Structure formats: C-alpha cells, structure tokens
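S., here's the first fold you wanted:
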Amino acid sequence: MRFIVFGDSKGKEKSGINEKVLKKIMNESTKIEPSPQFIVVCEDTVAGSNKEEVLAYQLDRFRNIIENYHPNKLLLPIVGNHEVNIEPIDDRFEKVLGQIYNDLNPNSYLEGYNKTVYYKDFEDTRLIILNAFHFGSTHKINEDQLSWFKEAASKPIRNKLVFIHSPAFPTGAHLGHCLDLYPDYRDAFWEIVDNCDIDIVFSGHEHNYSRRIIDGSFSNGDFCYKRKVNQIITGGGGEKLRDKYKSKHGIVVAPIAVYHYLIVDIESDYIKVCAISSKEKKLDEFIIDKANF
C-alpha cells in the first residue's frame, strides 16, 4: 500500500492556497511509481475565513486542484487551525469541512466532532485522525478524544499511524504553542501512543520538514515511555517556510525549510517513509521493521 502526505499549503491568493507550489508538488507526485492509492493532508490547506462561504470556496478549490492531478483518489482531511478560523468558538467551520468532504466514509468516528476525529482502516493498517482545534480545546486533545483515541489505538492491528495538525513536540517555529501548550494533556496523548504501539505520529503546523524520536528520555515523573516513536512534521505544502530550531532533543532530521511531500509505503514486513522536495530531492528516508510483529 502506498499513499502520500503533505500539509500547510495555504497562501495569499484569492483561493487561500499557494497554488503554484501545490500544483508543483502534485505534478511531481504523479510521477512516482507505483502511484499512491490515497492522500492524507495534514491541513492548513487554505487560509480560511470567518465566513463559511469563503472557507467553502477555498476548500472546494483545494479539492479541485488535487482532483486534477489525482482523480478519484480518496482524500483524508485533518483539521488545522486555519480551517476553523484559528480560535473557533463553535463548530460551524467543522461543519463546512464536513460538507466539502461529504464523501468521507470512516470506519469509526467520535460523535460531536463532525467526523473530524475518525479512523480509516486499510487491510492491516489503521490511520487515526485527531482534531487539535475543536472549539474550546485549541492545541489540546481533550478527555473525550483521549478516551476515543485509546479505544481506537488499543485494537491489535499490525500498523497504526496517527495524524494531528498540532505537533506534540514542536521544534521551534511554534514551540510552546502546539500540544505542548497543555503538557498534561500532551503527555496523556503520548502515553497512549507509547502504550498502544503507534508506529508514527504525523503533524504539520511548523512550516518545514523534521523528524525526531520520542523515547524514554522524554519521560516525566508520572510515567516512563517504553518505546521509540517517530514524530514527523510535514508542513511544506506552500505556506511561508520556517526553519527556526530550538528544541533539539531527540532530533534525527533538523527542520528543513523546503517545500515537500511524503511517500509512505506499507508492506507485509515494513513501513517506509520518504520525504521528497518539490524539486525531486530526497530529504529523508527511514524504514520501520515489522517482520517480528
């Protein structure tokens, strides 16, 4: 199974998208063989608006661009801050997102979140999508989501990947203004990641590519992480790039300010992730051995 991942494609055009960069990335992604089966977007795909009709226009335009390059392929959305007008006071923007992605057919979802907290299964792989920008819970995975996430992640499935726009452990550009804004909730989230054998956590928000290993050295007095888990930040879809770099603990690939996308390959005995720039340069590649699962 193969799919691609990218995020943070917003821009200053009327569409709210950096269309030049997005089209470049999409064009490059059509050249890979075999072609991807579906696409996961780590959101901030558009600039957003305080008017539902403007947001709907932007999201529809975004989908049309993707469709031009990857027709009839499933698109899995994740809520970013710009999709819900930065600091939402209600769920009306989530409902707009749901209208644009009304063809989304998740295997399960959390009631009350407009199908923005859900999982999708592909044979022996589960993709779990969380919402860090639900109204009243900005940059927080609250108790409702934590309970749902624990149940979804606890099932004995071979491969489990998590997607959330706001990183648990940002590297610099948004340090102190991601899930780390609420460290107790962040730690409760990552304890589930650790205990439930999540393979990789993908995020966006910081406009670069980076990879770090979260392991026992990140533990605190309440609990100790037992596993090494890759956290990937992929925010190079078109937004203004940043490579600010302060939090260096566990870093494998320091922030790279370059437009890019990810190719994720899942085979019977491994998961491979490759980060490719819009100029077709390989930025990073790693493999998780699943032969002994």
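And the second, which I think is the more interesting of the pair:
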Amino acid sequence: MLSLLKRYWKVLGRPSTYYSLGFLTVGGFVAGVLFWGGFNTALEATNTERFCIGCHEMKTNVYAELQNTIHFTNRSGVRAKCSDCHVPHDWTDKMARKMQASKEVWGKVFGSIDTPEKFEAMRRTLAEHEWKRLKANNSLECRNCHDYDYMDFTRQSPRAQNAHSGPLARGEKTCIDCHKGIAHRLPDMAGVP
C-alpha cells in the first residue's frame, strides 16, 4: 500500500509529459467550476421545502403544524419555508448548520424519529437543540425577515411594545426567548420554570 502511494506521489510530483501547464491550469479551473456549481446546486436542493418534507417524519409532524400558523398563511402572502427558519443565509453558517443537520438524517436512517410516537418522545430534545442554536446566533434566521429597526411599535400590543423596546432592544433577550412555539407546537414543557 505504501509503495503504491509513493508511486502516485512521484507521478504527481513530476512535470506532465503529455499536457501543457496551460492546459492543466485551464482544465483544473473548469473542473473546479463544475464541482463548485454541482456542490452548490445540491446544497440548494436540500434547502427546498419539497426536500424537507420528503420524509414522513417532517411532513406529518412539524410541516402539518406549520400550515396552521401565520408563517404559512397570512394576509400579505409572504410565507416562510423550512430553510428560512432552520438554515442560515450566510455560507459559512449554512455549512455549519448542514453539518449539524446530518444528525437529523442519522435519526431518519436509524429510525429514532420514524413514527409519530418516537417523534413526540424526542420533540422536546429536538426543540431544545433548535432553541439553543437560535439563542446562540441571536435569532439570526428570525432577523432575516423581522428587522428590529423597521418594527412599528404603535401597531403592537402594549405587552409586545414593552418586550421589544425593553429586553430585546438592550440585547438581554432574543426572539426565541419569547416566541417558542410560534411555528410549531410546543413540546411538553413540564418542569421548565
């Protein structure tokens, strides 16, 4: 095995006898563009609602719940899809989130959430992971659509005005602190202060 690696390294280390440096450079560039385009296309395909609800765990549980909320149907016609709330827009944050989401694929493949009963048993754990992530990034995904600077406090209830102009404005709280359960049903919160 070691001799095979040494032989390949030797081939890679010497100049090409058949192709010019320009051809190899252009060929490498074209291959890189094709790889990058294919990679981004696949990455964006995993951000579609169709992909997210492709497994029955999501379609029959959280997606069904989302359909009854203001984030799905409202008077303005603006609708949030799964990736709007669960995948950051910035590339580095998106890649980190995709790596975290591989655990969800693991749960699908190995059946830890493949029935409504198993999903319900894991709901609080899954929700707490999302709340922790949103708390850590200052509810970045919420702020992609809901910009604090454009809030019209005169059209909010007194309770919302106090919350938005108080702890939220001072950076003591973030969106998810008060808005848990806004798009999905809350898990059993027994024992939470």
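Why I say that: The chain is about 60% helix and 0% strand. Residues 23-146 form a domain with the Multiheme cytochrome fold fold (CATH 1.10.3820).

Talk tomorrow,
H.
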